[in-house]
Amino acid sequence: MPNPTAAILIIGDEILSGRTREGNAYFLAGRLAEHGIDCREIRVIADDHAGIIAAVQDLAGRFDHLLTSGGIGPTHDDITADAVAEAMGVGLDVRDDARAILAAHYAARDAEFTPARLRMARIPDGAVLIDNPVSAAPGFSCGNVHVMAGVPKIFQAMVEGLLPRLTGGTALITRNWEVRLPESSVADVLREIAGRHPALSIGSYPFEKQGAYGTNLVLRGADLSEVETALGEVQAAFPEAS
Amino acid sequence: MPNPTAAILIIGDEILSGRTREGNAYFLAGRLAEHGIDCREIRVIADDHAGIIAAVQDLAGRFDHLLTSGGIGPTHDDITADAVAEAMGVGLDVRDDARAILAAHYAARDAEFTPARLRMARIPDGAVLIDNPVSAAPGFSCGNVHVMAGVPKIFQAMVEGLLPRLTGGTALITRNWEVRLPESSVADVLREIAGRHPALSIGSYPFEKQGAYGTNLVLRGADLSEVETALGEVQAAFPEAS
């Protein structure tokens, strides 16, 4: 059975303007791979209601899961919950369990439970909450759309809470082999090896270290013995000293 | 006149698997902002022919420019040029000027000009070459699609060669103000200020430093005096010592 598929949607003007270097997608892509879920696409879009709806409908329709980051805080530019509810065709309102979580959080800190903070208890109808052990305000799963916060520490905690609920597949086996040759010197042999192993993903990633060019050859697949066989062929063609 | 718009398309399995942390989009988003081109979307997709065609047609159709990174090297998994040519409905073949650039590069290094290397001279019909001062193999602009290499050092050099050719607009003016309050404490006032300045983009970005929560308030707009006015309102509402 093929692995489940997923897309990641990052919502936030601050990434598109180059102000912030995104890290949540990198973290999540690695965790999905370990969990046996194939991440097929990552998208970064602006805090725009119509744009979020279009992206959610497109990606949630094409993949088994859509995981989002950003836009569920208390401020006027936090519009993800509204857009996801509309994209999925369900209502959105303050929900008692989410309100209770926030009320307890602020009461324990002698902080006022303001209308802005109450906004974070607005949850699409029928959604399942995603626990936020860092700052209480929950994420949620609405159908196959999993909505999480953008602050990295909170996002990562939510991902760890969510993943056990998602059925995983086979984590791909990865082997790599670094050669001190430019990519163009390994291309022909690599093409032959890839042709003999169509079930594997064989990639070549050129790098440059202290002015010398090299290539990292990466073999990935679900079957350990085939990955190891192909690795042996790569190693025979390009011994370490090359 | 509104600024030109752009999308960034990153092509590469190694990002989706979480193996590599993408940095080219971050670099390019910042450079586009400085050049007065509004980056509206960033997308990361796999090395898949049909997937690249669909993404190129979607993004090049919706935005003034599409800038891509990755998949134009010499190996079997470098399929971007073929897919872009097909997406744009033009042919693709080895082109004399591109071949001459590569031939001179390899001749100067006493290196063989192999069939794999010749692949990098395959250019869509009618495209304009993008100079590669690092390793010779050129990128290209095919209509409004600008195709560049994935190796960061080469990508950055190609971006610097390309940008002067693209008409820019007004670089947005950005001011920010950091407050030592959680986002939920600034939300109500910020919403009022944003309501008074609909032409501005006013964002709030929560952070955590050594266990204390704070929020970075970012005001962006094309009109300096309006940005400064709104900044004054933000500073009055949240003096530095708050």
Automatic annotation (TrEMBL), chains A, B:
InterPro entries, per the entry: CinA, FLAD1_M, MoaB/Mog-like_dom_sf, MoaB/Mog_dom
SMART domains registered for this protein in UniProt: MoCF_biosynth (SM00852)
Residue ranges of domain MoaB/Mog in the record: 7-170
A Pfam family per the record: FLAD1_M
Name assigned to this protein: Molybdopterin-binding protein
Organism of this sequence: Thioclava dalianensis
